[in-house]
Known about the structure:
- The chain is an alpha/beta fold.
- It has 13 helices and ten strands.
- The termini are close together.
- 50% of the residues lie in helices and 13% in strands.
- β7, α11 and β8 form a beta-alpha-beta unit.
Amino acid sequence: MFGFLKKKLSESVEKLSEKIKKKEEKAIEEAERPEVTKLPEFEKKAEPEVVKPEKERKPEKGVEKEGVKERKPGLKEKLAGKILERRISEKDIDSLFSEMELGLLEANVSLETLEFLKEKMKEYLVGKQLKRGEIDKEIRKTFERILIEIFDCGKIEIEKLAKDKKPVCIVFLGFNGSGKTTSVAKFGKYLKDRGYRVILAAGDTFRAASIEQLEVHGNKLGLKVIKHKYGSDSAAVIYDAIEHAKAKGVDFVLADTAGRSHANRNLMDELKKVVRVNKPDLKILVMDSLSGNDLVEQARTFDESVGIDGMIFTKVDVNEKGGGMLSACFAVKKPILYIGTGQGYDDIEMFDPEKFVRDLVGG
């Protein structure tokens, strides 16, 4: 998972550390190089040496009274204290990002996210005195800190919502083929396994076989599916599911919706109606993590249209790049709630920003 991004981060940090070491070695070499002084054109006539009585003689510089010459520290030793520690400069950070920029862009990290990373690195590191052997470690640690800041957009404890209200209505939104229906089924099993009563609402009345697909999942998982005919009003289907849940004491209504392009205004208006009529407790945007740079635009448009509360990213287990997830979080400042890690019903994980970033930076 995210092998490409891990590799680029690791390579860039190593290159910066190597550059700093080479600069230091060059500084030592230059400092130790003997200075070449020109001989005077005319030598002064040597004056006769006056031998002073032994008592009046002063010990020569570098010679102790006992006649043992004092050891002067070499230039390399004088510089040792300075070389053992290094103050990070803006040029060092610029150098790091000149190495990293192309790799991060290839990993689908947006330009605005890249600039934020760069400025934050400067804020945290420039002027910081570091031991020579700790530069690599400190850069990684700082990267980890900044990435956690981006990914950690708060936490929604979904199970706690059911303590205050029943049913809790959660609407799943997203682009065509993003994995909404499968995510609804996975999340339904996740909640059922924790003892909650769950029903599914077949709000996708547009795509062929979408209702049957949700029913297959429902039958396998033992979850009731509320449905209407194809072409029915999606808002009405979800409304009926909520009313049924109220009557039966159900904890959660998980509503599927039709996949829609974020660029299609009519379909986005239909989604606004679903939200306006049913006032869901949560609106979760489901996105295919392999969609790359388009994830930023998807997240922004859905958020501006209906106001998303959180995100689920699918196919994370086969994603080698991962920069799109980072950029989407940075763009909308909404939390990732879960990630899809496979095709099975149990292949869904609660997102832990710290664990996720530690694996990314340390990998």
